Every structure is written in structure tokens, then in C-alpha cells.
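Listing S7. Sequence submitted for prediction.
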Amino acid sequence: MGLNNLPSSERAHISFFGRRNAGKSSVVNAVTGQKLSIVSDKLGTTTDPVTKAMEILPMGPVVIIDTPGFDDEGELGELRVEKAKQVLNKTDVAVLIIDVSAGMKETDKELISLFKEKEIPYITVYNKCDTLEEVPADNGNTLYVSALTGSGIHELKEKIASFTPDKREKFIVRDLIEEKDLVVLVIPIDESAPKGRIILPQQQTLREVLDTNAVAVCVQDTDLKDYLATGGKKPKMVITDSQAFKLVSDVVPEDIPLTSFSILLARYKGFLIEAVKGVSALKELKEGSCILVAEGCTHHRQCNDIGTVKLPNMIRKFTGKDFIFETVSGREFPDNLSKYDLVLHCGGCMLNDREVQNRMKSAVSQGIPFTNYGITIAYLTGILKRSLELFPELIKLI
């Protein structure tokens, strides 16, 4: 997969924050070498976060985000500030832009407090240093630049790159297989499958199998039994779409490890442990409990949609109780989760690691169990223990 085709969820998210007219947009344009954001002397020119996926050396593939002024005022201004705060949840590296002539204000200190609270690496950048008679020397993570002349921009890019997370040692499945292993990928093609393509976790898993010089066989759930009956090489493992978990489990022999794309993705995204811990809350829920169903993407819902139809029906059947299900999608996720008794999240393939981990941490810190679709389906169908045999340290959490 070329760098220009890398999905946004796999790119480091670099976000620029600051007060109005500190020069955020000018610095963004200087760093990217493009007129990504509109620049004006008028306060509040950037009214919504501006996002661009691109490749910048020496950082590689990134998402650059220019945010509204954090000191915006009025009713609309407050909404813009809230949008800027939402960006924090997916920010891997924060760049705080300060007008050197104005110096650091309380708003800037508030942003630094938020960076620290959310454990976001940050760089403090004093812009417009061309207006100074003498430019102070850079000090640690404090830099002096001029978006107008380009002074200090190269050093800023180098500093950002030093903070950019390196995903090269993170794997979905590559660390579980070896060269020449046979991996069977079960990919149902039904009404919920996107036309003409396979979903991102399936693409990523397939690529990792091939990168390992292992052998991948892709079959539909309805053809799996016939394929296994051919008597060919024994698979190292079978990985299935969660919705076909029960059917696939009935077909795959017990001596062949079985798991799902969703479980592997939860490990890759960094929330598998909490997802395993959280799923047992289902048996403790009382009649009328409220479950938040959260999805990272927005899509047209089919009549048999997994999040709003299939899973709620499976949960009601398993527990014998009726619950209230509320759904959020895309970038929307409540800060206050006190009304919910469980957060049931999708695989999170369209969210970067930090955003889905922030959602998990938010739930856990508020005492709300957090799990995901794949773990839940395995639990409801009685095969969670089997689906986690590749990770024996997690079985004790069930």
C-alpha cells in the first residue's frame, strides 16, 4: 500500500492549536508547503477544523489538522472551541502556536493543561519571530519560527517528526504467523459487504499475511466447509468476520486456532484487554439498562444492520431482557457516559489508535464497561474462549 493510499486511521495526526490570529493557519501552510488553510488578519478565519491527509518529509504519511481559535467568543465561538477540543481526542502530536508579540496567555496555558491531561506530546511554537530584533534560541520543545519568511519551519518539521508515533512494529497478525504458513480468511459477501471491495481490517490482515510470505486463502463462510474438506495443507489459523463466528466455529476443527478480524484489530488498536474485561457486564445488566452503540464511521444502515439490529437482537435473546440502545457514529462520542451501563463499540478501523483508546479510557474512568462487536458476538455465541486461544493470557479475564 503506497503512502499516498494509506488510510487516515493509519497516519499520525498532527494538530495545530492556539488563539485567534496567532498564525496557526500560516504555520500550517508553511509546514505543508501548500495553501491548506485560508489566511487572514480577521479574527476567527478558521471556523471549523481543516483536515488534510498528506505526506510530509521527514514525517511520512500524516493527517494535518488546523483548528479554530481556542479563544473564540460568542455562541458560535463556543461551538468552534468544542470542535477544537474534540480534535484533541485523535491528536498524536499537538503544536501550540503563540504570537510572539503577545506572549503566552491563559488560553495557551489551558491548552497545555489539556495536552498533559490527555498525555499528548506537544511543541510550543512562537510565530512571527521576524518581528523581533533578536530571536531567542530554541529551547527543548519550544521553537521560534516565522511563517512569513520560513525561518525555523524546517526545525519545526524535524521536531514534529521526532514525536510522530512509529507504527512499523505494530501488527494485526504478522507476529502470529511465519513464512509459508497457511492462513484462511473467511470473508462473507452479503448485503452488508461493501460493493466491489473488502473492508479495511480484512485488507490490512491480507496484506500482513502476504508481507510475511505466508499463504492466504480467502473464502466465503458458505464455502469454508467444502474448502477444509479438500484435505490440503492444515491452516495455521482461521480468521473470520465476526458475523459468521458461530457458523465458522462449527466447521473449523478444534485443533485449528480460530479468531476474528475484530479481535485482532482490537489488539492492534490497543483496547483488546478492556474489551474482554467489559463483555461480561452483559450478564449483569438489569432490565431497561442503557447501552451505547458507538461506530467510528458513518454509513447507510441496511435493514439488518449489525449495530442497530443484529447485535441488539442477539443481546436480548441471550439475556432474556430488554434494554435501551442508543447509537452514535462518526466523530460523535459523549463526554459524559453516566447514563450508560455499557459501551459497545465497533472495530474502530476508521479511527486512529489514540481516538479509540481515548473512548475506551473515558468509559473505564467513568466506571462504564467497554467492549466491541467481535468480542460481544464471540461471547454471545459461546466461543469467546476459543477465539482468544491465540492470547492465553486473556482467557483468565473471561
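Caption to Listing S7: primary sequence and predicted C-alpha cells for the chain studied. The mean pLDDT is 89. The two ends are 36 Å apart (CA to CA).
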